[in-house]
Every structure is written in structure tokens, then in C-alpha cells.
Design goal:
It is globular and about 50 Å long. Helix 1 packs across helix 10 (about 210-225) and helix 2 packs across helix 3. By secondary structure, it is α/β, with parallel strands linked by helices. The protein has helices at about 20-25, 45-65, 75-85, 95-105, 120-125, 125-135, 150-155, 160-180, 195-200, 210-225, 245-255; strands at about 5-10, 30-35, 70, 95, 115-120, 140-145, 185, 205-210, 240, 265-270. It contains eleven helices and ten strands. The chain has a six-stranded parallel sheet. The protein has a four-stranded parallel sheet with strand order 6-5-7-8. About 45% of the residues lie in helices and about 15% in strands.
């Protein structure tokens, strides 16, 4: 039994999309979340800058006494996971790409035409393609495209409107047609927030969410290490930090989790790294 919190972090609000899966699968667990909303988006930044930011957040999480770090950000997972794991060898560090790639290789039919949707940094790294091929080297139809405008629009709450739909058409219509895509991998934890848009525009395309798969990976790792919180864990406050604690950050948490902060035992704090 281990009642220490699990630390989640992301370049902004995207990693929040993993939290509902954790709360459903592991209701006894306590969460410390950090969103680097003041410096988002990470996807257009250099790998060196992303690593610098990542290690700063890792230090913050370690000081909070987390029992596990969950990198709920594909960009960080693609560029900085190894450095973070090396810096904190005594704390399990889980990224989002490896568990998602495993599910793609296992569950998506071999003849499928897979489209990886992600940030520029994640696409440049080639991490998704290489991880999928590790599990299934026979895959011949994996294609990738960067969608850099999605994250800033989502961070601003521009989701349920024509601007987002037009942006989706701009990035994906030709991509889908050219490669005959039948499966989208949402290779950024922000992208589940536009899943309804994607389903409406491309109703025949299957969606695989990295946000969902990382929650499953956390559950497996906690079980393997015997690190579950006790069923009567009294330290149940979930604390959500942001480098810019904006009204949009608070509203987005309540939108994603579907309940108000009192019901979820949430506290919000501003943090300057």
C-alpha cells in the first residue's frame, strides 16, 4: 500500500484528458497535476528547450513526494522521457507513446491505414512509428502529420465551433484522402478534446486515444510494483497546479471531469517554475 500521490504533467491542459480514466480505474489514488500553461505549446519548441522545461517540472514533482510520474504529454514523451527517467531512477516514470503504440500494434488490423496526428516535435521524433514497428514490424501503412494549430486553439477553448472544424479540414482532408486513412491515433493528449469534431467530420475513421492508454499503463505499473493506495486513503485532495492559473484552465478541468471542484476534492494552485 502506498498513499503517496501520482504526479501527472503536461505542456498545458491536454494531460487533463487522462485524469477521468485514472479516477474511474483507480478511485483511491490521489493526483498532483501540473500544466505548463504559461509556456505552452511545446510542440513547436526545440528538443533542448523541451528537455529543460521537463526537468524543471520533474524536480517539482519529486519535491511533492509523488510515487510515480506520468508524462501526460506526447511531445515530452517523444523528446525527454529518457532524460527524466535517468534523473529519477527511484521513481517510475511513464510516458504516453509506448502504451499507445502497443495497443495500435495489438488491436488495429494489419491492413489498416493508420494516421498519426501529433505536434511537430512528436512527428519529427518518429517515436510513434518506431514504437509501433517494434511490436509489429510487418506494418506497411503508417503515416504521420503534424497539426500545430490544434493545441493553441484547444488551450483557448476554441473547440465547438467552425474555426476548429475548418482547421481540421485544412490539416486532414488531403491527408485522409491521399493515404486512405481508416484509423487516427490521437498522438497528443489535447486531441481527445476535439474527438467529437473528428468523429463528425470523419465518421468512418476509428480513433485511438493516448490519454486512455496511459491510464491503463499506470494501473498495470502500480499493480506490478504493489503501489496501490489503500481503499480508505484519507489524503484525498487532488491538487492541480498551473504555471498560469487562468480561468480557462479551471473551466477546462471542470469540462473534462464533468463535475465541480468541491465534488472532486480539487484544489487549484498557481506555480512559477
Amino acid at each position: 500500500m502506498d498513499n503517496r500521490p501520482i504526479g501527472f504533467f503536461d505542456s498545458g491542459i491536454g494531460g487533463l484528458t487522462s485524469i477521468p480514466y485514472i479516477m474511474r480505474q483507480l478511485p483511491a489514488e490521489r493526483i498532483v497535476f501540473f500544466g505548463d500553461t504559461a509556456r505552452t505549446p511545446y510542440g513547436s519548441k526545440s528538443p533542448q528547450t523541451i528537455r529543460q522545461f521537463t526537468l524543471q517540472i520533474g524536480e517539482f514533482m519529486a519535491k511533492k513526494g509523488v510515487k510515480m510520474m506520468v508524462v501526460a504529454c506526447n511531445t515530452i514523451s517523444a523528446t525527454s522521457l529518457d532524460e527524466l527517467q535517468a534523473a529519477y531512477p527511484d521513481i517510475p516514470v511513464i510516458g504516453v507513446i509506448a502504451p499507445t503504440a502497443k495497443v495500435v500494434a495489438r488491436d488495429v488490423p494489419p491492413e489498416s491505414h493508420i494516421g498519426i496526428l501529433a505536434t511537430k516535435a512528436t512527428i519529427r521524433s518518429g517515436a510513434y512509428v518506431s514504437k509501433i514497428l517494434e511490436h509489429d514490424p510487418s506494418r506497411q501503412h503508417i503515416y504521420s502529420t503534424a497539426c500545430p494549430a490544434f493545441v493553441p486553439l484547444i488551450e483557448e477553448g476554441i473547440i465547438d465551433n467552425q474555426i476548429m472544424d475548418l482547421t481540421i479540414h485544412y490539416y486532414l482532408d488531403r491527408f485522409v484522402e491521399e493515404h486512405q486513412i481508416d484509423t487516427f491515433v490521437l498522438g497528443c493528449t489535447h486531441y481527445p478534446l476535439i474527438a467529437d469534431n473528428l468523429r463528425r467530420i470523419y465518421p468512418d475513421i476509428r480513433l485511438i486515444s493516448s490519454s486512455k492508454e496511459v491510464a491503463t499503463a499506470v494501473n498495470i505499473e502500480l499493480s506490478r510494483r504493489h503501489m496501490y493506495a489503500g481503499p480508505h486513503n484519507q489524503e484525498k485532495d487532488n491538487v492541480f497546479y498551473a504555471s498560469d492559473l487562468s480561468e480557462n484552465f479551471v473551466n477546462m478541468i471542470q469540462r473534462i471531469l464533468g463535475r465541480d471542484q468541491d465534488e472532486l476534492n480539487i484544489r487549484f494552485k498557481n506555480l512559477d517554475l
